């Protein structure tokens, strides 16, 4: 994207064709349905964490309350497992990898906060939600990346509809949190 590149000296932008590779994760559980999306993957020590949206059969719109956020992890970033976290009931059981359910799951995007003064039980942060059904983009925090709670009783005061994957992270170079949506 030339809009974010100041200059190039001896370099050029090249679009490469995707190369089919192995399947990293199969979304074959009933709660994953037909619309997995918005995956977020990051390395956390010796583990890779993946968070992704899933939509049980029968729902497609952004504001569907049946949307869920699922979790997977890997030791190498290639072979993934979906651990049972036992938090949210789906299809009469909590034997699943669902971390969150509802409109906030539409685009829940976690990150590992690298701010040097980050509060330990808020080491993991996330944003999620769409303006027309959840009043906007909500901030969430977690001590372990599994158990999440809303940070405050109001959504963040950013303008926008937030119906895509919204990114917030600590920018160590500027010493500020950054947001892209």
Question: Would you kindly provide a written description of the structure presented here, covering whatever features stand out?
Answer:
There is one protein chain. With 181 residues, the protein is mainly beta. The chain is 2% helix and 30% strand. A hairpin with a 5-residue loop joins strand 3 and strand 4. It contains one helix and eleven strands.
Strand percentage, roughly?
A: 25-35%
Could you estimate the helical fraction of the residues in percent?
under 10%
Average pLDDT, all residues: 90
Radius of gyration: 17 Å
Q: Which parts are unreliable, with pLDDT below 50 for 5 consecutive residues or more?
A: none
Structural shape: globular
* Main beta-sheet annotation: 5 strands, antiparallel
Which features does this protein show?
11 strands; four-stranded antiparallel β-sheet; 181 residues; globular; mainly beta; five-stranded antiparallel β-sheet; 2% helix
Task: Write a brief structural summary.
Helices cover 2% and strands 30% of the residues. The protein is mainly beta and 181 residues long.
Break the fold down into its secondary structure elements and pairings.
Elements: E1 37-44, E2 47-54, E3 68-74, E4 80-81, E5 98-101, E6 109-112, E7 124-128, H1 131-134, E8 138-142, E9 149-150, E10 167-171, E11 176-180
Antiparallel strand pairs: 1-2, 2-3, 3-4, 3-5, 6-7, 7-8, 8-9, 10-11
